[in-house]
Structures are given as C-alpha cells and as structure tokens.
Amino acid sequence: QVQLRESGGGFVHTGDALTLSCAASTNGYAMGWFRQAPGKEREFVATAAWVGTGTTVGDSVKDRFTISRDHAKNTIFLRMNDLKPEDTAVYYCAAGRYTTSPQGYKYWGQGTQVTVSS
Question: What is the rounded CA–CA span in Å between residue 44 and residue 103?
C-alpha cells in the first residue's frame, strides 16, 4: 500500500501562483495529478515518470503548469502559474503507471482543494 500526502492547496486570486506537493511513502511508481471540479469528470493534469525525467502535462494547462519530481524524497510538485477561476477543483495526487488515464493509477491521495477567485 502506498500512502500519498498532498499539501499546498488553498484560496488564491486570478493570476496568482500556487505549488502543490505530494509525498509518497515508497518509490517505484509514476506519480501524477488529476483534478475534479463539481459536476465534472476527473481530469488529467500532469504526470512524472518513475524512471528518468519524463513528464507529461495536460493540454489545457501546459502553458501554465509544470510538474517536477524529487526522486530522493519520493515527492512531486505541481507549479501552477497564472491561475484562473476554471482551475478551481479538488486536486488529487496519484501513483501508478506512467499514463494520462486515471485507470492507470492504483493509489490516490485524499485531494487538496484549490479555489481561484475572480
């Protein structure tokens, strides 16, 4: 069982930046971020491979969001710049295969709320 601990969510204003962190209890898995807004399906945001430095960022945020990984600390970071109200969602950290599909992730964090006010 992999435990995921997310942090960094909060309330910000349009144009602000925020960094989310997710620490895993063990290594060996790709780690990624998904988000889910009320009434919407869970959406892929970004993922980082366990082997090497491969990353993938979703098309809807790739010009504003960056994912990075500290392998030594089993931690990933999601840097979110120029936040918009439509970025408001619960952001979930996940561990599993290196894929953009949520079905590829076996372990999930409890989620952290990001609210962007206009």
Answer: 11
Contact predicate 105/32, CB 8 Å: yes
List the chain pLDDT tens, one digit each, 118 residues. 899 999 999 999 999 999 999 999 998 999 999 999 999 999 999 999 988 889 999 999 999 999 999 989 999 999 999 999 999 999 999 999 999 999 999 999 999 999 999 9
Among 100, 58, 63, 68, residue whose Cα is nearest residue 83: 63
CA quadruple 112, 116, 117, 118: dihedral, nearest 10: -170
Query: Whose CA is closest to 80, among 50, 23, 88, 72?
Result: 88
Other CB atoms within 10 A of residue 49 CB: 16
CA distance 89 to 97: 23
Max Cα–Cα distance, the chain, nearest Å = 39
Tokens of residue 63, six digits:
């010009």
DSSP-based three-state secondary structure for 110: coil
19 contacts 79 by C-beta, under 8 angstroms: yes
